[in-house]
Amino acid sequence: MNKSVDLSKYQIRTDLAIDYVEDKNKLKGVKYKTNIINDITVTNVELDKDNDLGKKKGKYITLEFEDVTDYNNANKLRKTLTLVLKKMLKIKSDSFGLVVGLGNDKSTPDSLGPLVVNDIIVTNHLYMLGELSSNYKRLAAINPGVMGETGIETSDIIESIGQKINPDYLIVIDSLASKSIERLNKTIQITDTGIQPGSGIGNKRKEISKDTLGIPVIAIGVPTVVDAAVIVSDTISFIYKNYAFNKQYMKNPKSKLTFNNVNFLNKKIKENKKEKQDLLGMIGTLSDEELQMFIYEVLNPIGYNLMVTPKEIDFIIHKLSNIISTSINNSIHNIDRDR
Amino acid sequence: MNKSVDLSKYQIRTDLAIDYVEDKNKLKGVKYKTNIINDITVTNVELDKDNDLGKKKGKYITLEFEDVTDYNNANKLRKTLTLVLKKMLKIKSDSFGLVVGLGNDKSTPDSLGPLVVNDIIVTNHLYMLGELSSNYKRLAAINPGVMGETGIETSDIIESIGQKINPDYLIVIDSLASKSIERLNKTIQITDTGIQPGSGIGNKRKEISKDTLGIPVIAIGVPTVVDAAVIVSDTISFIYKNYAFNKQYMKNPKSKLTFNNVNFLNKKIKENKKEKQDLLGMIGTLSDEELQMFIYEVLNPIGYNLMVTPKEIDFIIHKLSNIISTSINNSIHNIDRDR
Amino acid sequence: MNKSVDLSKYQIRTDLAIDYVEDKNKLKGVKYKTNIINDITVTNVELDKDNDLGKKKGKYITLEFEDVTDYNNANKLRKTLTLVLKKMLKIKSDSFGLVVGLGNDKSTPDSLGPLVVNDIIVTNHLYMLGELSSNYKRLAAINPGVMGETGIETSDIIESIGQKINPDYLIVIDSLASKSIERLNKTIQITDTGIQPGSGIGNKRKEISKDTLGIPVIAIGVPTVVDAAVIVSDTISFIYKNYAFNKQYMKNPKSKLTFNNVNFLNKKIKENKKEKQDLLGMIGTLSDEELQMFIYEVLNPIGYNLMVTPKEIDFIIHKLSNIISTSINNSIHNIDRDR
Amino acid sequence: MNKSVDLSKYQIRTDLAIDYVEDKNKLKGVKYKTNIINDITVTNVELDKDNDLGKKKGKYITLEFEDVTDYNNANKLRKTLTLVLKKMLKIKSDSFGLVVGLGNDKSTPDSLGPLVVNDIIVTNHLYMLGELSSNYKRLAAINPGVMGETGIETSDIIESIGQKINPDYLIVIDSLASKSIERLNKTIQITDTGIQPGSGIGNKRKEISKDTLGIPVIAIGVPTVVDAAVIVSDTISFIYKNYAFNKQYMKNPKSKLTFNNVNFLNKKIKENKKEKQDLLGMIGTLSDEELQMFIYEVLNPIGYNLMVTPKEIDFIIHKLSNIISTSINNSIHNIDRDR
Questions:
Q1: D118 with C149: Cβ contact below 8 A
Q2: Ranges of CATH 3.40.50.1450 domains, chain D
Q3: What is the band of C8 on the pLDDT scale with cuts at 50, 70, 90?
Q4: What is the pLDDT of residues D92-128, one digit of tens each?
Q5: D17-226+310-332 — its CATH code?
Q6: Which residues does B contribute to its contact with A (CB < 8 Å)?
Q7: Considering the entire predicted model, what is its pTM?
Q8: How many Cα atoms sit within 13 Å of D92 on the Cβ side?
Q9: Contact assessment for residue D105 and residue D116, using Cβ atoms and an 8 Å cutoff
Q10: pLDDT beyond 50 at A32
Q11: Strand (E) or helix (H) holding B297
């Protein structure tokens, strides 16, 4: 591979800490714990300052769930998310919060943040008038838009409004690009480390965190798109995984390329380098990271900015935004209807 | 009428200077000139510091036009508005503008500002990267939302972003409440005096002007709703106007209350006090302003926040926003397609 | 008044049977009963063939409720409406229903029908494949659009699809024009008489009923707009009602036109003809119907097709459509989550 | 590959005749002609009854164009499409047309048909009243919805309305799934063969054609999504194409996997079987069709219904629908503004 190319720009970021914590026991500075709450898998990752992951110190809570277009799944997620947010936020009665929806309301998979903000119960204007009832906390909310539509760096908009109204904490909602098609719309991450540069669908954001703003920043993110390069490299990996799985688990595969509708994705397989190269040629000699970067370069001249989403994305995004906005409202204000 | 009531809160505001300039010759500090450009009536009102109208010193240009859902009318308006804006803005090649859309994108008649901003060609982010082509000027655009949805005073959002990015001038687009159903969606006012307190549909805005922000503020406003009280008082006035018109112009009215589908609204009539009281009773003895305030009081206990719009308002607002955004883009950037 | 004018075209229709049943005891062929269910006033009117109202034989159930943007009001209405629909529909397990949303999804106050249909759980295609689970009934749903957008008479679309798929019953949802601003978005009528000509916002519809289609037609209607003429005539009536109320109830009105923020609208007043004419002149001699027709004629030359709605209509319509679609789904399918 | 799997269900359909006509000279029953009109490549394919492609007899006109979000490209496309439609439709002055928008207006890439129909100038209701001006032809338009939302087979809705109103011809607009990422939103096909089973995004439609309806059916289709499997197989093909290109055209490639930002996609390359297998392993021995089917099988167990679209799809679809609706209006009615 031509090393003169700037590979960093092709690197697919993920801010899902859970993606890095596969072999949790061997890592230093990493605490890891998983619970099941209302059938939702809740994973707490706590990173110390000098952790082996090289990621920012802080808490990362991940909720993994099934298809939210199912009423029962949605219900369970809402209850669990409310619990998790209550614990993460621990709002004092006189705290003033600002909720920020990152993303573009005109691009369906990137519209999660703006949609959530539209349903937040804001009260700051009532507080200013002395008309705030005791069941509600002081809350404001903004949709700063995206740089392509405003011409302004999004973090500048947030910072300047923050300096004007002086909130005590920030909640930021964002659509994320996923490194894996299996996580798409099926994972929520809540972290107290804020938004890191390069995360999110737009890929060029500046940091929004306690370090840059001086107040706690809770980020709520959902992976809603997969870059086209990811699906290609995932599929190439699957090809080998499936082939190896068949060879290792199946007795008499009619053909080495047979598929038998068995979900091989969750099975552990041992990789055999020679075998992988036979199947995939020189492509098979690349690491996962090298493969993805390589595919980026191949797709680059086509000039298309492609994304992969489920066909029913419009419906899923509305469900997710409804769950998240209700959970935020319930966990901050004293109006939880699921008691 | 009970003078202990605070009548000021019932006063229907209009920021259309043209509404005040009926008897232009008698007014001091008021310059007034009307042209017809592409079949559009363009009225220039220039107010000196101590003008008889008691309004802010500055230029007020009003465009009066016919139904914009007609393709030809829309075309003429776009051309004329582009001309007027070019003259009003006189953008230097290195000027940096910020376009602000006031209003609520979820309420159709109040969505004009946000819709216009969505179609503004922003370039500030390209300028910051040194990638701005010479045909384009430096421009940013924001939709600050409304206080009921953000919890934040709108002028605070504009002011704080303004202080961060330091534009040279502001363009503010707003839906206005009209004092007259005849002006509804058929008038655009451009003024260099900015947004005055109490104008707009929301009715509670703070001033946004050169005085408060320190840079020129061009406000573009269109009356898109009429308060319910206005239509009642307008109709009561029409009743008399029509009656008097028939008496003065028609030879043999079959009945004093006859209507003959003649548009009496543009005719001059002489008012006869006795006659008006016969027709309308004590109501007929009130001045137009007293009548409107009186109706506000009558409608007040019903507790409804009613507005009057044309039935096809969704369609009209989209046409108007398209005309205004195209005119702004054409008059600032070097991309006018109507040369 | 000039009797040569065709007054019928100015007549403001209401299909709310409740508007006609003020003096219930004196009417023949009219059964009338009111219950309070979950704080919702439910009025059952049953009309015999030869009823004094001159309206179609059948059941008319009216729900009167408070502002649905309040969570508790919405909850109560949903529960009560589900109960009422269950009783009205009495769906057999093998019945096949077609839900029809009348109205224009691009005009907010007329979009109720289309919005409800978007959230109906349709199952007919699963039934055709033999894949329908036993908790669900067979259901299809269409939005036929409005004649101005399709060029086709709406009843022709419904009739032709009906003939093709052969449903056992029809449910039709429609936005209505109200005769009264007090009912706006605060009344739902369910009737087994279908849709009558001239009702609805569009005003020119053909009958859609058992008589025309041969199957039961349940119509669900909500008044969402008031014609501009209504608010004028209502206000003129209020003016006198308030004046008379003040004279009769208040001891020392400072002025005959004083208002004291007392809600006079629900008080009974005795009308005094002489007094009314003093206050309102010749206008005061007209009956309510004559006044409305007169105002139509006055507003006619202005050429504007105006409607009156609450300023928050976009939000209210979404709430109402959510309540109605959930109630229909709950009352037909076996999925009621409020048991 | 396991031949017991039903491969047909994995077959990616394309209704773009142009995809089949690469080696035009060798095919029987196929006439083929390409023109450039206003910089748009217009390809006419005419298929005889017994053509070598095994496709339906008829005309297929394909317009290939550049990014329509560019004003000039959009302008040229609109003019050329108007010309092509005029020729294809040859509307007699008394012909009655019905325009049908296939697809789901709630799923962005599938919303092209409904969006186009929303902007068609319908006149049939005016014709019925004898009020149609001579500049306009008789036209109606419907959005029949999708089966998942109506519970009714879409072709049944079209057929039943057709039988009721008796149009002389049908125009059907549809979003297509593309077999190639390069065609995405950059091709329009107009054909007089109607809609064939299995085409379109939904994939399960019945035929809508002269054979089934008895009147001419003109179908206008745009590929707006690519199935996720396509992008994987396209990329794998590109990998080899690029590798071979570099070897054949570049003198000193620093590495065999180097990319040099040269658009290799339009270059002819000679395929070398041995070389391809070295690069891609056993995967390299599969034909393009086998590769796509194979990838379908790999992606199948993941259970996701994924699609690939450009990130700016919302904006592109609105531009395309505007161009197509304007072209239809201009080519049918006598209102062409581009003369």
A1: yes
A2: 17-226+310-332
A3: very low
A4: 888 999 999 999 888 888 899 999 999 999 999 999 9
A5: 3.40.50.1450
A6: 106, 118, 122-126, 128, 139-143, 145, 147-153, 156-157, 159-161, 163-165
A7: 0.83
A8: 6
A9: no
A10: yes
A11: helix B288-299
